[in-house]
Amino acid sequence: MSFESVVASARSEGRTLLNEVEAKQTVIEAGVPATETRLATSADEARKHADELGYPVVLKIVSNDIAHKSDVGGVKLNLENGDQVAAAYDEIMANARKAEPNASIQGISVQKMAKPGTEVIVGMTTDPQFGPVMMFGLGGVMVEVMKDVAFRVVPLSDRDARQMITDIKGKAILDGVRGQPPADVSALANTILKVSEFVAAHPEVKELDLNPVLAYEDGAVAVDARIVIGEN
Known about the structure:
By secondary structure, the chain is an alpha+beta fold. The chain folds into 2 domains: about 35-115, ATP-grasp fold, A domain (Dna Ligase, domain 1, 2-Layer Sandwich); about 120-230, ATP-grasp fold, B domain (D-amino Acid Aminotransferase, Chain A, domain 1), CATH 3.30.470.20. About 35% of the residues lie in helices and about 30% in strands. It contains 8 helices and 10 strands. The protein has helices at about 5-10, 20-30, 45-55, 80-100, 140-145, 160-165, 170-175, 185-200, and strands at about 35-40, 55-60, 75-80, 105-110, 120-125, 130-140, 150-155, 205-215, 220, 225-230. The radius of gyration is 18 Å and the shape is globular. The model has no long low-confidence stretch (mean pLDDT about 95).
């Protein structure tokens, strides 16, 4: 499904927030490495997706009415087989309906569990004066606690992307500390550039977050994506 058709579908439903499956498909098509994510609307469908993607897998509730999935028991990690997936599907649905009885639930996303890496965030927000602005920093809860981020106005050059990475105070973590391997700076710069190119080409995108992106010694992969579009 093209980004244009995803946007049209969301607007027809009165949504400005793309769900995780739509957002992931969008960034993958834009050339950003991300974990393939599929939507399941039944336990059997979740099992089928998991069998095809390969184990272990992660299941997450898909609902624009549930902002913090983990808080409502809407995430299950490291599922090793079809029986675990089917049981997790039913449990997530029950948890979500109990926590948010009025939430509109699209289904449950199924994705392959990514290997651990250094968590970073790649994001974009729209400034009323400057337009699209790219953001890079340490990811996960670190971005909320440390607020250690760098910004650049779109469009970016490769040099801009690399400078964003070196600008953060936590750069030493990416260099590798206490025996950890260094992060692949070229892969991170490429991710920043791909997002910059995508938002420059699609002014309907108002916000975009890849958090976390897992940085490895040889590459990087986004495991969660959030995209907000304009109303028209």
